[in-house]
Amino acid sequence: MSNTVSYAQGQALQVLSFEVGAQTYCVPVSAVREIRGVTPPTPLPDAPPFVRGVINLRGQVMPVIDLSWRLGKGAAQDGPRQVIIVVENQTDVAGLLVDAVCDSFTVEAEQINPPPALGDGEDSPLVSAVITAGEGDMTVLLAVSRILPERQEALAA
């Protein structure tokens, strides 16, 4: 489980929750740089289908990921509450297009559960953990490092 969120036993984790389709997901607040309105991205040729294109964020060119598409739910439908959550993972920055931001809250360590195996002993590469907050109330914690498109290294000339 190399893609799980690291936390000390008994230590809380602050998360930001948001909607994609009819489901609620979250990411660690420590990975969120900002939340901004939707800016139409410039499409890139040969980009993966879940990459809507790129936008200029204060001089930094950043991909915009259609999180609905990335999670296998098809292309996101434009909506009035749609926003871009700017996330960072080490040196990579990307915008996650989501339907709406819900809340920021603290999760106790005992509420953070490893993702279940989905077959062949593998867990979902995009899921970091499942958060349980009550009877039947679960939120999927996404692995930011796995959602971002893989960086293609430039070929030496």
Please give a structural write-up.
This protein has 157 residues and is mainly β. Helices cover 5% and strands 49% of the residues. The protein contains two helices and 13 strands; from the N terminus they run E-E-E-E-E-H-E-E-E-E-E-E-E-E-H. The protein has helices spanning 67-70, 144-147; strands spanning 13-20, 23-28, 32-37, 51-57, 60-66, 83-89, 92-98, 100-107, 112-113, 117-119, 122-123, 127-134, 137-142. A six-stranded mixed beta sheet has the order 8-1-2-13-12-9. A five-stranded mixed beta sheet has the order 3-6-7-5-4. The longest helix has 4 residues, at 67-70. The protein is globular and about 45 Å long. It starts with 12 loop residues before the first strand and ends in a 10-residue tail after the last helix. Residues 1-9 and 153-157 have low confidence and may be disordered.
Approximate shape: globular
Distance, first to last CA = 38 Å
Q: List the uncertain runs.
A: 1-9, 153-157
Rg estimate, integer Å? 16 Å
Indicate the proportion of strand residues: over 45%
Number of extended strands: 13
The structure class reads: mainly beta
Q: Strands across the major sheet, in which order?
A: 8-1-2-13-12-9
The succession of helices and strands, N to C, reads EEEEEHEEEEEEEEH
The share of residues in helices is under 10%
Q: Would you tell me the overall average pLDDT? A: 85
